[in-house]
Amino acid sequence: TAWHAYWRDVCAAHDATDSKDTLYPRLKRWCDEYFFLPWRREHRGIGGIFFDDLEVVSSDVSASSSGGSSSSDVADPEAFARAVADAFVESWRPIVERHRDEAFTEAQKSWQLARRGRYVEFNLMADRGVRFGLSPDAIERVMVSAPPVVAWEYNAADPLARLEDGSPEARLVGVLRTPRDWLREEVSQS
Asked: What's the gap between Cα 43 and its chain centre?
């Protein structure tokens, strides 16, 4: 939950509302809604924030039709976008430092490659930016964003059927199927 609290604080610093607590929940919801693979009935990741098309508009504009945030929630869209870019590495550093020396099994590596495959699936099938720009002369621009190694199983059964109950992979799939409000859970556990 520390990662989500970090991004809540970045958003709060740029939230134009009086309460300073509306931007993060809206961008998290937008992320949960946008990064969904309906053919898998799961989300691409465990949540984060997502935004695009931020621009300065009058404060009476409601949320965009894409489910996202009204740019009137952001005091300065350019400053916010820069803050997000500047904060990215620091948000991940503690996670990487905590796990970088952990050993992993071949089964865990196979699982990682399959999850990377979901990333590629989303980009090719659902990402509106990729679909808009996909053309024969732009294939390399799209594919260069893919992880260098991915995996799929053709005609594979439901991945839950093969997972051990209570395993980290089974817990992850549970979260991917039902997004969580990590910060609310953190408060209720305190």
From this structure: 8
